[in-house]
Amino acid sequence: MTLDVAWADRWTRLSAERIAAARDELTELDRQIGDGDHGENLDRGFRAVVAKLDGSAGEEQPPGQIGDVLKLVATTLMSSVGGASGPLYGTAYLRAAKVTGLQELDAHGVVALLEGALEGITARGKAQVGEKTMVDAWQPAVDAAEAAADAGASTADVLAAAAAAARQGAAATVPLVATKGRASYLGERSAGHQDPGATSTAILLEAARDAATA
């Protein structure tokens, strides 16, 4: 099974629904170690993305490729989301769009999408695994996806592996001491709290997984 532009559209809309449902959770996580606006910012951003998708339906050339949808997500998040999450996620989707300018993705194409997103985040945020950021969810997701694809897994199973690894990675940020971003100002006091960016990463990748089987 390959993934097409309809999957990218479903993923985006499902992401908006899941982020809206998790808005308070993400806000509370961010309140503990950050500015307290992660949930609100992402919710606002994805609502704007869905509005753009809805508006493009009447255009002569709506998004025809997966990369077109991802680029729309990227530019909208960059223009509508404040704080660090807008530029980080915007760059992630933009890099993913550049490597997935196709009408369909196979299992290794999914890996390329996730790798592109991770490269965008690390290029923008300069973070590494272990620093209590969204990279702690993205890196294990990429590693799990690559292993699954190399083992011959389907696109849906590759996304399932990535989503599970991202969720585990988010949970693993709890004992970490933040050394990047706003949370790093707390030093040792940042330990004991789950990183909001890693948590939203898990939510978005779970939406990608579920959109593949919808």
TrEMBL record:
Pfam families: Dak2 (PF02734). Signal peptide: none annotated. Keywords: Kinase, Transferase. This is Dihydroxyacetone kinase subunit L. It comes from Cellulosimicrobium protaetiae. The lineage of its organism: Bacteria, Bacillati, Actinomycetota, Actinomycetes, Micrococcales. SMART domains: Dak2. The keyword Aminoacyl-tRNA synthetase does not apply. PROSITE patterns: DHAL. PANTHER family: TRIOKINASE/FMN CYCLASE, TRIOKINASE_FMN CYCLASE. One of its GO terms (molecular function) is glycerone kinase activity. Residues 6-210 form the DhaL domain. GO terms for cellular component: cytosol.
